[in-house]
């Protein structure tokens, strides 16, 4: 069975170098007649790539680089669709799980059996899928409430198929399916005796027994497991390879059990020292942006353009992520920058240089360079279907520090993750932290008026966070209590018209057209969203000059209408190829 763990690619950075009523300010940037911004986006990308000595992406490399799906890493095997659909139902929380009906359960188990017997050639069920699916079934049987435990249909299907599956499934999968021999009866005797096949697996199996029983681990236990098994490519080279089934079961099991604060801290801090001491940028203020790594699939993603705006008045911004991440596989900052020709494979030290550059003032880091151990399991994450704990902790990373003030911003969607994110930010000892329920669970607040038929839960534009009072000197050890806040941003009260959010529907090019047009001074929904998000982040984080929200909005508009923000974005594309 082919491994679905992602191997590191050569760094493109090495091979390509060479190489309260806000006033409406008229555009100070004249482009004559309104341009077709599709052409502007492509022209900007080609121009800077040629100037930097970078070859334009060839058709054979990217079938259509304007669409987010095309950034999925080449060579990754696809998961089996039948089993993946079942995973979406059973590998989730105690209240969210939807038990399978008998017909679907029969179909899933039959697919697993035929795959294990070698009868499925083109759509194998991967080891990671087996680990995730059976971990979900085991945790449900052991610890979930009655409503989301096994259905009668699932019981009948398993009683029919398990006597045959037990003869063809790998030992580690049989362990995951019945770790203590209490679920499958006489055919579940492998689990209690299973210990793993390497030192790293033994530690993972020991931790997994607790997870599969619905239990929790300590901070050191989580960190120990992660450091043992990741990065995957190094584990293989050292002959301590762990089963993808065990690793998948561990990751999805921790999420199904709802991670404790201690567990999340373990995920968040596990690889802080992976690349040595963290670079420190000589900037007066730095904001770390934690967008969901799997991107946007429906609506305009504004953060890249917001970063260019905020950099204009000394609020340096560090973005981080990947080009493509499951489960959504949507538009990311990495895709947009790569499409425009920027070097998206910078080291943290190179990002520090760009943050300090007076012509840039922001930077983007790819997880491949910033944290290779976590980058190595992108493929596995596609095969476990649901988001693992890393989907939360990766948004609160600190790949570069600052001599001045530091803040963090992260997007969230699901109830229950607002406070954990703020907890992780406090653990990072930053001066201010902000979590935003933006559109699609991302950071973009909307100017659209709240609908009377809005979904339950926290509304879009809900924000909460903390900040250090401006009249107090902050140190990492002084124990000062930060000011907390919760607010729902109403754009109409700030003078914005209610407008529908522009749809991009996975089109990288469309997202760039909207953003570049807005940074050129073209008024409209995208322009308003960039202004709103830049100013509100400044205001809520307590940034200098943004104490008054009207002043913060005017400052953001001036950065755009002067042409400064657009210039910084274009400068970044050039400079990203010249840093060393």
TrEMBL record:
InterPro entries: Glycosyl_Trfase_fam3_N_dom_sf, Nuc_phospho_transferase
Segments passing through the bilayer: none
Region spans: Disordered: 1-26
Top-rank taxon: Eukaryota
Cellular component GO terms held in the UniProt record: cytosol
Glycoprotein listed as a keyword: no
Gene Ontology molecular function, alphabetical: glycosyltransferase activity; GMP synthase activity
Gene3D superfamilies for the chain: Nucleoside phosphorylase/phosphoribosyltransferase catalytic domain
Species for this entry: Oryza meyeriana var. granulata
Keywords: Glycosyltransferase, Transferase
Protein's UniProt name: Glycosyl transferase family 3 domain-containing protein
């Amino acid at each position: 069975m082919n491994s679905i763990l992602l191997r590191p690619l050569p760094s493109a950075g090495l091979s390509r170098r060479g190489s309260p009523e806000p006033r409406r300010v008229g555009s100070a940037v004249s482009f004559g007649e309104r341009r077709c911004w599709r052409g502007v986006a492509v022209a900007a990308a080609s121009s800077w790539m040629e100037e930097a000595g970078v070859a334009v992406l060839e058709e054979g490399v990217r079938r259509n680089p304007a669409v987010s799906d095309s950034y999925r890493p080449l060579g990754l095997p696809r998961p089996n669709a039948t089993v993946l659909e079942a995973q979406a139902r059973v590998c989730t929380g105690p209240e969210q799980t939807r038990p399978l009906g008998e017909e679907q359960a029969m179909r899933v188990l039959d697919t697993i059996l035929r795959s294990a017997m070698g009868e499925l050639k083109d759509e194998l069920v991967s080891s990671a899928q087996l680990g995730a699916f059976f971990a979900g079934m085991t945790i449900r049987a052991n610890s979930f409430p009655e409503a989301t435990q096994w259905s009668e249909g699932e019981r009948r299907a398993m009683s029919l198929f398990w006597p045959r599956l037990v003869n063809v499934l790998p030992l580690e999968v049989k362990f995951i399916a019945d770790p203590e021999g209490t679920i499958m009866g006489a055919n579940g005797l492998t689990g209690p005796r299973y210990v793993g096949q390497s030192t790293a697996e033994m530690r993972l199996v020991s931790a997994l027994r607790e997870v599969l029983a619905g239990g929790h681990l300590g901070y050191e236990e989580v960190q120990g497991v992660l450091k043992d098994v990741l990065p995957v490519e190094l584990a293989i080279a050292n002959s301590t390879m762990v089963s993808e089934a065990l690793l998948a079961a561990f990751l999805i099991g921790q999420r199904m059990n709802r991670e404790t604060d201690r567990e999340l801290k373990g995920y968040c801090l596990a690889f802080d020292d992976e690349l040595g001491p963290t670079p420190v940028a000589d900037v007066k203020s730095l904001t770390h942006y934690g967008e969901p790594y799997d991107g946007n699939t429906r609506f305009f993603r504004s953060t890249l353009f917001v970063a260019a705006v905020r950099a204009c008045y000394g609020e340096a911004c560090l973005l981080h992520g990947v080009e493509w991440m499951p489960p959504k596989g949507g538009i990311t900052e990495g895709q947009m920058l790569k499409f425009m020709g920027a070097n998206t494979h910078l080291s943290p030290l190179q990002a520090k240089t760009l943050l300090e550059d007076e012509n840039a003032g922001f930077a983007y880091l790819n997880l491949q360079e910033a944290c290779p151990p976590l980058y190595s399991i992108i493929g596995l994450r596609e095969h476990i279907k649901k988001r693992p704990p890393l989907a939360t902790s990766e948004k609160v990373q600190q790949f570069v520090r600052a001599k001045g003030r530091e803040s963090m911003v992260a997007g969230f969607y699901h109830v229950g993750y607002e406070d954990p994110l703020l907890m992780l930010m406090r653990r990072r000892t930053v001066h201010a932290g902000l979590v935003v329920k933006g559109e699609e669970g991302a950071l973009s607040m909307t100017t659209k008026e709240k609908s009377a038929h809005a979904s339950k839960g926290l509304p879009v534009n809900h924000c909460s966070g903390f900040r250090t009072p401006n009249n107090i000197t902050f140190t990492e050890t002084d124990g000062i209590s930060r000011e907390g806040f919760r607010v729902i941003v109403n754009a109409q009260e700030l003078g914005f018209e209610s407008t529908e959010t522009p749809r991009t529907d996975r089109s990288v090019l469309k997202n760039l057209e909207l953003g570049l047009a807005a940074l050129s001074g073209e008024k409209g929904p995208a322009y308003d969203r960039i202004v709103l998000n830049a100013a509100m982040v400044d205001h809520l984080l307590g940034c200098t000059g943004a104490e008054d929200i009207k002043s913060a909005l005017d400052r953001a508009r001036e950065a755009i209408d002067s042409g400064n923000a657009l210039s910084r974005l274009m400068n970044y594309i050039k400079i990203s190829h010249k840093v060393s």
